[in-house]
């Protein structure tokens, strides 16, 4: 089995990077003279994925124009959130709705992580794990000790590839996951998309004991806020 489509979440306001993001959507900010979005698309292409869907809402015309002008060598569909922003869960659901119903498995990326070449091997290993270990949602996580931004708190506890949440958590979600469409909605694909966070899905999966994690050993660079963005620019 394999994964044909990757989803990129590009609809957010990026408020923690104001004033930069008052005119530039966060995915179009640059590090090493390349936008975060293009960096993510390049990684997905090198993974051998056939198609990309990305969602838009805030400053959507700028993202759509960027994709059209770049003429990437991979099929990319821009999916509009609609009249209201859909948050991460709603955005994923809305992109899945526009995919063939035969597609069950999707790679999902946040473009505000600075993905480098080392992630290619790691993500391929995660895909292999996902299909060898029956599960419907695997998150790529990293020990917070490897985070460039040392102010980030952990999101999860990680033990034998299962994720939980405790009062103190030492693993961070990197912004890459594999998700089966049935985790988002069990069969009812005719309803309209609505605003909800993907963390709601994760919390439900934790309660049932089936939220899986795969550990990245790569140094984790994430554009958290304006201060971290400026430090990343200085260190690259």
Brief sketch in words of this structure:
This protein has helices at 36-46, 60-70, 87-97, 118-132, 181-184, 198-207, 226-234, and strands spanning 5-9, 30-31, 34-35, 51-56, 75-80, 105-109, 137-143, 157-159, 162-164, 171-180, 212-216. It has 236 residues and is of the alpha/beta class.
Features:
7 helices, seven-stranded mixed sheet, 30% helix, Spore Coat Polysaccharide Biosynthesis Protein SpsA, Chain A, 23% strand, 236 residues, alpha/beta, single chain
Structure description:
With 236 residues, this protein is an alpha/beta fold. It has one domain (5-234): Spore Coat Polysaccharide Biosynthesis Protein SpsA, Chain A (Alpha-Beta Complex), CATH 3.90.550. Helices cover 30% and strands 23% of the residues. The chain contains seven helices and eleven strands. It has a seven-stranded mixed β-sheet with strand order 5-4-1-6-10-7-11, with helices on both faces. Helix 2 (60-70) links the parallel strand 4 (51-56) and strand 5. Helix 3 crosses helix 6 (198-207). It is globular, with a radius of gyration of 17 Å. The model has no long low-confidence stretch (mean pLDDT 94).
What does the secondary structure layout of this molecule look like, with pairings?
Elements: E1 5-9, E2 30-31, E3 34-35, H1 36-46, E4 51-56, H2 60-70, E5 75-80, H3 87-97, E6 105-109, H4 118-132, E7 137-143, E8 157-159, E9 162-164, E10 171-180, H5 181-184, H6 198-207, E11 212-216, H7 226-234
Parallel strand pairs: 1-4, 1-6, 4-5, 7-11
Antiparallel strand pairs: 2-3, 6-10, 7-10, 8-9
Helix pairs in contact: 3-6
């Amino acid at each position: 089995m394999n994964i044909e489509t990757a989803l990129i979440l590009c609809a957010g306001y990026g408020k923690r990077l104001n004033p930069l993001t008052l005119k530039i959507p966060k995915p179009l900010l640059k590090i090493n003279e390349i936008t975060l979005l293009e960096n993510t698309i390049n990684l997905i292409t090198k993974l051998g994925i056939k198609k990309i869907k990305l969602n838009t809402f805030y400053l959507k015309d700028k993202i759509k124009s960027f994709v059209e002008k770049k003429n990437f060598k991979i099929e990319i569909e821009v999916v509009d959130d609609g009249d209201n922003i859909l948050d991460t869960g709603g955005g994923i659901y809305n992109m899945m709705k526009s995919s063939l119903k035969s597609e069950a498995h999707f790679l999902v990326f946040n473009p505000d992580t600075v993905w480098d070449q080392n992630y290619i091997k790691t993500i391929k290993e995660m895909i292999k794990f996902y299909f060898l270990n029956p599960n419907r949602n695997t998150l790529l996580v990293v020990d917070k000790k490897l985070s460039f931004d040392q102010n980030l708190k952990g999101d999860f506890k990680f033990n034998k590839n299962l994720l939980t949440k405790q009062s103190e958590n030492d693993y961070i979600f990197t912004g890459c996951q594999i998700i089966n469409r049935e985790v988002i909605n069990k069969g009812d694909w005719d309803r309209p998309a609505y605003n909800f966070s993907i963390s709601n899905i994760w919390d439900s999966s934790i309660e049932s004991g089936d939220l899986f994690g795969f550990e990245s050993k790569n140094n984790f660079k994430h554009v958290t806020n304006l201060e971290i963005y400026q430090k990343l620019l200085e260190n690259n």
